[in-house]
Amino acid sequence: MGSLAARAVAGDVGARDALLGLVREMVHRYCRARLGRLPGSEHTADDVAQEVCIAVLSALPRYRDEGRPFEAFVFGIAGHKVADAQRAAIRAAVPTDELPDEADSGIGPEEAALRSSDASMVRGLLDRLPLQLRELLLLRVAVGLSAEETGRALGMSAGAVRVAQHRALARLRALALTTSGEVRT
Amino acid sequence: MISRQHGEGSVDLVAVARDDKLLDLLGARVGVDVTQDRVTALLDALVSEVDGELATVLSEPFPELPELPEAPLQLTAAPRGGRAGRRAAVALIVGATLSVGGVSAAVTGDPLAAARSVVGAFDVGKELPPTAAEIARWNKRLVAVRAAVRRGDAGAASAITALEGEIDSLDLRPGQRDALLRKLDRLRARLGDDANPAKDQDRRLPGTTKPTPRGGKPPGVGPPAGRADTKPEKTSNGSRNQEPEQRLKRKPLRQERSGPVSTTTDDSQSGVQGAGPR
Question: A183 vs chain B: nearest CA distance in angstroms?
């Protein structure tokens, strides 16, 4: 990704488009994982992800000057955008859909609640982790980065990432145990 | 147990490797056994939710990417004087493109018009802000507030107050920040004018007064804006914490001066369209 970024900065349009393709998927996953519990979050996360992509592209020429790993550059921007969206969501009114004219044949509220309960629960547990451990797990699991890529994004070595993620999972298991009492390890 | 000292204490390297493999599998979306570990099941549910309909979203084409403008006209027209002049020119471009982008977004319905304009402008000057998209987002909000003021919506005043409250959270250069504050001041002044045109003449800021007959003063006009006797009293913690009633009377942080920055007016009618990027 770093070499793609370097070519994109140099004006290679093909590299820029390829880079955008990579960044876009990563950023969408990250924003969805971070913003999943916001009211109307489905669209908020995707909107924020698009904003991040635009911000990354617009700031791309600065990347070379700062010399940071490109992953850190991208997720630094994404982190700020997500925080902005969270602040805005606290203040903003919650839009509601118009009432439907006909019966909804989709899953009912109970089933939907059951399906999302696990995801909601893990978000709640992740929120109780220290910031860096939470970011680390989200990058590894939700975004799908390798330990090496996650290390570049967070300014850590891959080995430190592996140890930290092990500790994060241990904490998560302990939290889950105290929360639900049904953890099996 | 294979262990090693690391940071806070000993680490079970086998468990570290096992967790690393688990996270690799979750990240790669290849399927994991969720029956043995509750946390694994929870993380798998998170992955499912994150990926829900993601392919559909990603299959949609990304909006057209901005192209580099050919000629940086604003830079060539910038005032003399190295770095300061360059910054002023950049501020001019930012302000102009914010207006042009906002107007084009409103007219064309293209929500990314503002972003494209801002991106293009900063590409020209090579002085990229970390928050170009943030500025674009702000611009869209300003356009919305401006429309609300024009319509006389009851919520316009609170919307302006909300925007003012958020300015400090933006990572802007002083000139950009002041330009935003001036925009909000003008909108607030206009809101007051529309609500009570006779009484609110003294609130108007330079450049926002309505046209008056040459040589004549409209009735009820107070001292010219910017005079010492019209300035509001400073609070101990600055103007950001003033009550709404006081803030209605607040003057801009910096009086407008002649020069490029002062031309970054907020209105589409102010004739800055021609200064936008091509």
Answer: 5
pLDDT digits (tens, 9 = 90+) for B114-130: 444 444 333 333 343 44
**Contact criterion met (CB < 8 Å) for B136 and A54:** yes
Cβ within 8 Å of A, B 224-243: none
| Nearest chain A residue to B17, by CA | A162
Instruction: Find all residues with CB under 8 Å of A101, minimum gap 6, and list them.
Output: none
pTM: 0.49
Taken as a whole, chain B contains a residue count of 278
Interface residue B273 vs chain A (CB under 8 A) = no
Which amino acid is present at A146?
S
Most confident of A106-110, A147-151, B53-57, B251-255: A147-151
State whether residue A114 sits within 8 Å of chain B by CB.
no
Q: pLDDT class for A10, splitting at 50, 70, 90?
A: confident
DSSP per-residue string spanning A27-66: HHHHHHHHHTTSTTHHHHHHHHHHHHHHHHHHHHHHHHHH
| Partner residue opposite A59 with nearest CB, options B15, B58, B132 | B132
One-letter identity of residue A120: S
Q: Pull the structure tokens for residue B227.
A: 């005079």
Q: The tokens of B162 are what?
A: 């909300």
Higher-scoring residue by pLDDT: B197, B33 = B33
**Interface confidence (ipTM) of the complex:** 0.78
Residue B143 CA to residue B136 CA, distance in Å, equals: 11
- Contact B33/A at CB under 8 A: no
Q: What residues are paired with B10 via a beta bridge?
A: B5
Residue of B nearest to A45 (CA): B50
Residue A126 CA to residue A86 CA, distance in Å, equals: 16
